[in-house]
Every structure is written in C-alpha cells, then in structure tokens.
Specification:
Layout (H helix, E strand, L loop, with lengths): L5 E7 L4 E6 L5 E7 L9 H14 L4 E8 L5 H14 L5 E6 H9 L5 E6 L3 E7 L2 E6 L11 H19 L4 H10 L4 H9 L5 H5 L2 H9 L3 H24 L6 E5 L1 H5 L1 H15 L3 E4 L4 H13 L32 H12 L2 H6 L2 H16 L4 E5 L1 H18 L6 E5 L4 H4 L9 H10 L7 E5 L6 H12 L3 E6 L13 E4 L14 H20 L3 E2 L2 E2 L7 H15 L3 H10 L4 H10 L1
Parallel strand pairs: 1-4, 4-5, 6-9, 9-10, 11-12, 11-13, 13-14, 14-15
Antiparallel strand pairs: 1-2, 2-3, 6-7, 7-8, 16-17
Length: about 575
C-alpha cells in the first residue's frame, strides 16, 4: 500500500459525525467534526450533505472508506449509507459500512477480545471472544438506549414530575432542568417536551444537568445516575454471559462515559461488583480511526496503527541503571541493600531543585490566600500520588475537600486498576480543567515523571488560558518544552530507576516528597500549624481524639481531663478549645 493511498474513516453518532483521513503509516492526515450521523434519525439529504462536506475538506482522495454509523442495525440501512457514500466518493475501491459500535470496538480493542460499552446520546454494548460476537441494545430510545444520556435525562425528568406529584414541591433537580431549558414551570417543561416533540438529541442534552445536579449532591439526581448506570452494567453483564467471558477487559466510549466522571465512576463501581472485569479503561483512540480500520482490513494486510506518540527514550526514567544490572542473579539481601542505596539518591536530587520547590510553594500559598484552590493533575503513579496528597489535606488541616483537589487521568477506576492509555488523551486533560471550573485564582500542579504526558500538558495549557498559575513537576530535566512555559518548573534530576522505566520507584518517591513539601509548607503559612502541632486536625476517631487532647495539653499546660472536657465542649475542635483558654 503506497503512502499516497489514504483510507477515510467516518463515525456517525446521535450528536456528531467525526472523520479522519489515515495514511498507510497510520498517521492521521486530516480530521473534522460535523453534525448528527445517526442514520435512523437523519434523512438522505442531510447525510448526503455531511458526506459531501467531508469530500470537499479532504487534502487527498481516499482509496477506501470505512463508516461506522449509529442506526445501522440491518442490511438495508448499511446499503443506504453505501449508496450515499458512493455518490460523494465515486472513485473509491471499497466502502465498508457497519454499526458505530463495531468501529468503536476496533478503535478501543483493534485486535483482541473484550467488551466495549458505548454510552453517548444512545447506548450500545458489543463483545468479542475469538470469532464470536454479541451485542446488547442499540435499539433506539423508544425501546432501548438503556444507560445512555437520553435514558439518564428521561429518568431525571420522570423523577422530577413524580416527586412533584407526591409532595407538591419542585426538587432542586427540577429547578436545574428549568434553568437549563429557560422555562418557568413544570407545566412549561411538560409542554416543551410533548407539544414541541423535543428531539432525542435535545432530551439527551439534559443529561449534563442531571450530572451537575448529582455533583451538587441532589439525592434525586444521584438516584437516577445509579439506576441508569446499573441498566448499562446489566447490558455488559449480559454480553459477557453470552460469550462465556470471565473477568473481561471492558473499554468505555461515548460522551457520557468519557466526559461525565460521576457517571463513569458509578458505572465502574457497579460493574466491578457485578462482573469483576480484569480492567476497565476509557478508549482514547478516535472512533473515526476505528472506522478506518474497517476498510483497512480490506486494503491493507495489517490493521492501521494508531498515530505515534512522542518519543520518551530521552527521559531519565527510561535509562538503564548500570548499578542495578543482573538483578535476577543477586541474593535477596544483596537486592535489598542495593534498593536502599538507590533510594538514598532521592534526597540529593530534591535538594538540587530546592529553590524551585520554594518558588512553587510560594505560588500555592498566594493562590490559597487569595481564595483560590490547588489542583494536582496526573496519570498513573503521578496521578495517584496527587490524589493521595489531596485526600489527606482535609482531615490533617481541617480544610474543605475543594481546597486541594486531585485530578486523575481515567478518573476513579484508574486509582485502583491500571488504565495506562488514558494518559495520552490530551482533550480529556483540558476538559477536566474546564469542568472543575479552574480560574485565575487557582494554581494547577501538573505531575508527570517524563514531563511529556499529553493529559497533563494539555491540562496545564488550558489552565494557563484561564489565567491560573501553573507548576510542572517532573523527574526529567531533559523533558520537551511546553508551548508556553509554566510559572514554575520543578524538574527533579532523579537518576535511572532501579527497574528501568518503573517510575513508581525513585521518581515516585521524589514526587511524593515534593508534593508533601508543597502542601505541608503551604498549610503552615495558612496558619494551620502552631509550633509543630496540627491545630486543625479533625478528631474523628479515638486515636485522633487522643492526639487532639495531647495537642491541647502541650499548648496550654492543662491536665488531660481538662483538655478533653474543653474539647468535648467545643465539638472536639482544637482551635476553639485553645481560644477558650486564651480568652479566660
């Protein structure tokens, strides 16, 4: 196949149609996004216009087309799409048309077995085990689409009207839906839905409102999210049962699963309980590339490769460590001694960047004092360390959970199960920053051992556009430069790892210490520490109540009984107990 021979991939969904032109080397030469591509709800003229627009945008003509289109549930629908594509592209050698779940599957799992769960405007589940395939849903919103954005929005709407009928009060979710639709009453909302025959896409758009209400703590919205996610889990379990798959790899796709972390986390929680999958991962490969692979099997001897990522071989963490060669031939005492020797190299590496760590901490302090928040963002080990440090701040220093937040590539499922491919999703990193509402008062700390993780770099770049202060923490002084440098870069010169490329070791240790340093020193500057005692620690168990008593005893000279009595009187709030002594 010549490099001049290109394959066009088109994926049509209920909300948008995406396309990409792929060369023989697997690189994407051009791509774009257009309107709805669900053939079940889109007429010939509209589809014809979409295909013509794509044809006009191509820099090179394709030799073949692969199209994965929502609504292609029978041969007649596939034939209709082939005919329309043939009009727009009369000289192609082959046109392959399948349901968009098939192209999505090839994007997520191009050569293996597993299950793909798609939840966007509609929903579809597709599984493969060897030569066997099984599907669930994809029947459309009238009789199916369980677990989709449409299903979630419909569940939310029904719940609002049901609660109003029972109580006479409009719940907070109802108010949010009225705000989203610019309507003034539930009567108006009902009329808007029924009399104006609101489209599937329009109703599905209200799923975002249900998600936001759930994030704000609406019990009604959370119940709808739980119910809707559970219906999708049952579809996945049904496919796994029919294919006799135990602990399958489950890939996730579609706007609801990819972009709504609250929904994805609930789905993953229920799926783990129901099916115990070997892995849950978000598919970051464009669905249009999976569509191109449909035709690639006809034109090329091998499936098209995904676009290459940046070279990471120059990173310190990827170098082989000459001191730790022949590990498999050493005794356990020798290995332990060598491991500790290597760990001792972390301290000098951190001291080498002490000025930068101090500058970074000053940025954090200034942001928090100005009413801003601190965000850690990372993938893999780096992301988990950021989430860990953020989660410890509220109980240790008595802060709101929103003050220091962790953003993890892949969300909650990636905290416990390796989801390595999500680190390459730059769009998701930028989206996470947007959806957390980062603004000019905040500070964002990007954590990436190699200094090149697309999820992290895109998040920092988006934070910069929003006026936030940015810090990049890496273990690679030879990292690639960002388009716009961060306010502070901390490139810890850790040496080659004990195990080549295993950044959970020296790089992970150095990163954890750096994060501990920044957050702890910032809390000291915010007045959360007196002497070297944590005066805002939350005394939520017996051990911490004992610690609180000892802190009060140290700072007041009281006996334990008096300290405990003062704490009990003030709800075990150390600061209030100390204030009562100072005012006495």
């Amino acid at each position: 196949m010549s490099n001049r021979n290109f394959i066009l991939g088109i994926e049509g969904g209920g909300t948008k149609t995406t396309w990409c032109l792929v060369g023989a080397d697997g690189a994407i030469a051009a791509d774009g996004t257009l309107g709805c591509g669900n053939v079940a709800v889109t007429g010939d003229e509209e589809l014809r216009g979409v295909f013509r627009t794509i044809a006009q945008a191509l820099p090179n003509p394709p030799v073949a087309i692969g199209a994965g289109m929502a609504g292609v549930v029978n041969p007649a629908a596939a034939a209709r799409v082939r005919a329309l594509l043939g009009e727009a592209f009369p000289n192609v050698r082959a046109i392959i048309v399948e349901h968009d779940a098939r192209s999505g599957f090839l994007a997520a799992q191009p050569s293996g077995n597993g299950i793909l769960a798609i939840a966007g405007t509609g929903s579809f589940v597709l599984g493969r085990s060897g030569e066997r395939w099984a599907r669930a849903d994809g029947w459309g919103h009238v009789v199916g689409d369980t677990g989709s954005a449409y299903s979630l929005a419909e569940s939310g709407l029904r719940a609002v009207f049901r609660q109003f009928d029972e109580t006479g009060e409009v719940p907070s979710l109802g108010s949010a839906l009225l705000t989203a639709t610019c309507l003034n009453s539930l009567e108006d909302l009902s009329g808007w839905i029924t009399k104006n025959a609101a489209s599937k896409k329009t109703i599905a758009g209200l799923a975002r409102t249900v998600i936001e209400a759930g994030e704000a703590g609406s019990p009604l919205a959370l119940a709808c999210i739980t119910e809707t996610a559970g219906s999708l889990v049952r579809s996945v379990a049904g496919v796994a049962h029919r294919l006799e798959m135990e602990h399958p790899l489950v890939a996730l796709s579609g706007g609801l699963l990819v972009n709504a972390a609250l929904y994805r986390d609930e789905f993953s929680r229920q799926l783990v309980k129901c099916l115990a999958p070997s892995e849950i991962r978000v598919s970051t490969t464009p669905g249009a590339l999976g569509a191109a692979r449909l035709a690639g099997a006809v034109i090329a001897p091998q499936p098209l490769a995904a676009p290459p990522i940046a070279d990471v071989r120059s990173s310190n963490t990827e170098q082989r460590n000459p001191r730790t060669r022949n590990l498999d031939q050493r005794t356990l005492p020798e290995l332990a001694d060598l491991f500790l020797d290597e760990s001792e190299r972390v301290g000098p590496a951190l001291r080498a960047v002490m000025p930068q760590l101090v500058s970074a901490t000053e940025l954090v302090v200034a942001s928090l004092q100005n009413g801003g928040r601190m965000f850690y963002i990372g993938a893999g080990t780096s992301g988990r360390l950021g989430v860990l440090d953020a989660s410890e701040i509220p109980p240790t220093f008595g802060t709101s959970p929103s003050l220091v937040q962790g953003i993890m590539a892949g969300g909650m499922p990636a905290l416990a199960v390796g989801v390595e491919d999500v680190e390459d999703d730059a769009a998701a990193g930028a989206q996470a920053v947007r959806q957390r509402g980062v603004d000019a008062r905040d500070v964002v700390v990007g954590i990436a051992a190699s200094g090149r993780t697309p999820f992290v770099i895109a998040a920092l770049e988006d934070a910069q556009r929003r006026g936030a202060k940015t810090i990049l923490l890496t273990c690679n002084p030879r990292r690639p430069a960002m388009k716009a440098p961060p306010d502070v870069a901390v490139d810890i010169p850790t040496d080659a790892e004990f195990l080549t490329g295993s950044t959970r070791l020296s790089a992970g240790t150095a990163t954890k210490i750096a994060l501990n340093l920044m957050s702890t020193l910032a809390m000291i500057r915010l007045g959360k520490v007196r002497d070297n005692l944590m005066i805002d620690v939350k005394a939520t168990n017996a051990k911490l109540r004992d610690r609180a008593a000892r802190i009060v005893m140290e700072l007041t000279g009281w006996e334990k009984s008096r300290a405990e009595a003062a704490l009990a009187q003030h709800g075990w709030d150390i600061r209030s107990a100390l204030a009562s002594n100072e005012s006495a």
